[in-house]
Write a structure and sequence with these properties.
Blueprint lengths: L1 E2 L8 E7 L12 E8 L2 E5 L2 E5 L4 E5 L4 E5 L5 E8 L22 E4 L5 E3 L4
Antiparallel strand pairs: 1-2, 2-8, 3-6, 3-8, 4-5, 4-7, 6-9, 9-10
């Protein structure tokens, strides 16, 4: 784990290399953004599961039970952005962003500038 920012009370960014391990769902206050650099990342949010590949991004509310790690036997290298305070949404109301008050969910970016509510894969 390599911290890339050190600003108390702001978004924290960490580079992580994740080895295969057994899923254990956790919850905490805040929001997280995951960006896959190398490998495939398995993201579990509640009862939904997603596989992210290099260049793909997920954003989610961490009050929903979640876990992430390599999708297979090889390590995954990711950037994690984490914020404790709710972050305002910067897009229109049709995006389904998880950071709207009272909404839990995930948004995935699977191409240049294309955010979409996630349906899993």
């Amino acid at each position: 784990m390599v911290p890339l920012t050190q600003y108390p009370g702001r978004v924290q960014v960490i580079k992580q290399v994740l080895a295969p391990r057994k899923p254990k769902l956790v919850t905490h206050r805040g929001y997280e953004w995951l960006y896959v650099l190398v490998g495939e990342l398995r993201l579990i949010l509640g009862e939904r599961e997603f596989t992210l590949r290099p260049g793909e991004v997920a954003e989610f509310d961490t009050s929903e039970p979640h876990w992430f790690g390599p999708a297979g036997a090889n390590a995954a290298e990711i950037l994690v952005g984490a914020a404790v305070l709710p972050m305002p949404c910067s897009c229109d109301s049709s995006c389904g962003a998880p950071n709207r008050p009272g909404r839990l969910g995930v948004r995935l970016m699977r191409g240049p500038g294309r955010w979409s509510p996630a349906g899993g894969r």
